[in-house]
Write a structure and sequence with these properties.
Length: 651
């Protein structure tokens, strides 16, 4: 066995080893703020991150306020098991435990948002629905959750939990501005606010939020007429009314809206290449009405909501991409009832209609499908500190009939400080409307190839296993998880004729028979003294296409993060963050290429001027790592060194 294959890289290993060794030799001190948080995504019922029957990470509003956050990818990128992958046009997606970004389901308060990446090329439009100021926390669940949420939750779920109205008026205003060191584009600014309070005390509350984001276009270092990072202008907002007619009921009416403009400079390939500006305009909205009941006999929830996303394109030269509209209409609900003293039974269902209007999908420029599902879950208290969750969801798809997604998960609190848990689950993802349409045809790669639909595709299946433990004796905590994903019928694009002949090459979607992803996630934090907190996490992952024996693309074998936060006086906090991304394989013209590893270091400083006003300063990418300078094969660019200044006002 080649032990080098399992070695932690030196640049990351030293900080991680220092952290893990320090946790074994520190005596007890004052209790830090290391208590587990309450989460709901893994079962729809409250659990702590330790007792939850899944691997869950939480990013709270306090963490989001410490650093510049452009979108959801920025918010979760340093979480164990998370890989940011390129989706084209300098955009990124969130991949969990080695699965594609299309296998990550994004939710807002448990509601689906449009899965634009499955219907529109190079789409990351599900990452910017909620203003950061309106976020209470983000719950990130790794592992298939199709037993609760159905298709698209094959790899996991990112659930954005928003702030709720309170019995007193309160709010927050945040502003941030950033400049790159070289002044060559990429400047950013964000302005956002959230406020909420009662309209009628204890009966009717309101929550309002809004945010303006801007990022300048960043020219390519080697060819200024091309774009390394696209420019963005976005305006998003939400309004929510909460009506509580009595102590047992709550009715919520929510409206979310966002408008974005993205622009970049590109080059058209061919015998007569030319440069042009490419602009996407994205308009999205969601309207939701929900009822929650907390009765003597159990709890209920019923929701109805519609999500709409429009994308229009323009080009300064050449033919623009035709407009697209994706609409989801959803009705769902569930009932939770305690039974026999040690069972909590949850039963529910969902109806969803998905409609796509796009001239490339077929001759009628319109396709739709309906999904119906029923699920049943039983949370069983087997003994003191021992619980078992059993569940199954049956989804009916117009093309594939009934698909089952079972799950079993056991949690055992061995002692007050040590918890061991593990389980297995199966998830599925149905191909998108475009992928299945025999009439779908679109030009890609700047005119290099044409891609067509395939009505013979099978659904993608993931059977996942994991086992982990967490130890929290007081001032420190350690956790680790082993996982395996066995994948069947993954959908990928493959050339079927005229391969390599620009303009004539023809591709389609095909299933890959088998693939496997294995890995481990380690993490911990310690507060050796009241003013200092150290944390680290590390992810090791091995992937294999079990037909060809090759590694899957853009899955780094090693990745990790370290952080040291120091509060020398009550009003001042400084933090150093390090992010390591190991070597990874990418394929160009079916040839494997190894991309080098890299490390990003950042510095955050905050100064609380008053009880309500905080000033923040930040340096991102201190070492000025620019991936494009290392290789043109990186699927997205990291901004160079940038300086940011921000202000938060609570009221």
């Amino acid at each position: 066995m080649n032990m080098h294959r399992f070695a932690i890289p030196t640049r990351l290993g030293a900080p991680l080893l220092g952290l893990l060794l320090s946790t074994t030799c520190l005596a007890a001190a004052a209790d830090p703020a290391l208590s587990p948080e309450i989460v709901v995504t893994a079962t729809t019922t409250p659990h702590t991150t330790v007792t939850s029957p899944a691997t869950v990470s939480v990013i709270g509003k306090e963490e989001l306020a410490k650093r510049p956050v452009q979108d959801l990818a920025d918010a979760v990128r340093r979480t164990p098991g998370v890989t940011l992958t390129g989706v084209g046009m300098t955009r990124r997606g969130i991949a969990l435990r080695g699965l594609s970004e299309e296998h990550t389901l994004t939710l807002v308060d448990g509601r689906r948002v449009n899965v634009a990446s499955a219907a529109m090329a190079h789409a990351d439009f599900d990452l910017n629905w909620v203003p950061v100021e309106a976020i209470e926390r983000i719950e990130l669940v790794r592992g298939p959750l199709s037993s609760l949420y159905g298709s698209e939750a094959l790899g996991g779920v990112v659930n954005v939990i928003t702030r709720s109205p309170t019995d007193q008026w309160q709010g927050v205003f945040q502003a941030n501005g950033g400049l790159r060191e070289d002044g060559k584009g990429g400047a950013t600014h964000q302005v956002g606010a959230w406020m909420a309070g009662p309209l009628v005390q204890d009966i009717l509350g309101i929550s309002l939020s809004g945010r303006l984001n801007r990022r300048q276009n960043t020219p390519d270092a080697t060819e200024p007429r091309l774009t390394a990072l696209e420019g963005r202008d976005s305006l998003s907002g939400s309004a929510a009314l909460s009506f509580t007619p009595d102590a047992a009921q709550r009715i919520d009416l929510t409206y979310d809206r966002g408008d974005e403009e993205r622009w970049r400079n590109a080059q058209q390939a061919g015998s007569q290449p030319y440069f042009y500006e490419y602009v996407d305009n994205i308009d999205r909205e969601q309207v939701s009405l929900s009822h929650k009941g907390d009765w003597d006999w159990g709890k209920t929830q019923l929701r109805a909501y519609r999500s709409r996303l429009d994308r229009e394109n323009s080009r300064s030269r050449g033919a623009a991409t035709q407009p697209s509209r994706l609409t989801d209409d959803i009705v769902d609900g569930h009932v939770s009832v305690p039974l026999f003293g040690n069972h909590l039974l949850t039963a529910g269902g969902e109806w969803r209609r998905e409609e796509l209007r796009d001239s490339t999908v077929n001759a009628s420029a319109e396709a739709e499908t309906e999904h119906a599902a029923l699920f049943l879950q039983d949370e069983i208290g087997l003994a003191d500190g021992v619980s078992l969750v059993l569940g199954n969801r049956a989804d009916h798809h117009e093309e594939y009939g009934w698909q089952h997604s079972p799950r079993a998960y056991l949690t055992y609190a061995v002692t007050e400080n040590l918890t061991v848990k593990g389980g297995a689950g199966r998830g599925f993802k149905a191909p998108s409307l475009k992928e299945l349409s025999p009439g779908y045809s679109a030009v890609g790669g700047g005119g290099q190839f044409t891609i067509v639909g395939n009505p013979d595709l099978d659904p993608e299946i993931n059977t996942s296993y994991e086992i982990g433990a967490e130890y929290r004796p007081g001032i420190w905590a350690l956790r680790g998880t082993l996982f395996q994903n066995d994948l069947k019928d993954l959908v990928q694009t493959l050339c079927i004729s005229a391969c390599g002949r620009r303009g004539q090459e023809r591709r389609t979607y095909q299933n890959i028979d088998r693939a496997r992803i294995r890995g481990a996630e380690l993490g911990g934090e310690v507060t050796p003294v009241e003013t200092l907190t150290l944390s680290a996490n590390y992810t090791w992952m091995v992937t294999e296409n079990r037909v060809t024996g090759l590694s899957l693309a853009e899955r780094p074998r090693h990745a990790g993060n370290v952080s040291a936060e120091w509060t020398p006086v009550a009003a001042v906090t400084a933090r150093v963050r390090g992010e390591y991304v190991g070597r990874q394989t990418v394929y160009s013209s079916n040839v494997a290429n190894i991309l080098p590893d890299y490390t990003l270091w950042s510095l955050d400083v905050s100064w609380r001027l008053t009880d309500r006003v905080t000033l923040r300063a930040n340096v991102e990418n201190i070492g000025d790592e620019e991936l494009a300078a290392q290789s043109a094969l990186y699927s997205y660019a990291e901004p160079g060194r940038s300086y940011n200044l921000g202000l938060s006002v609570n009221f």
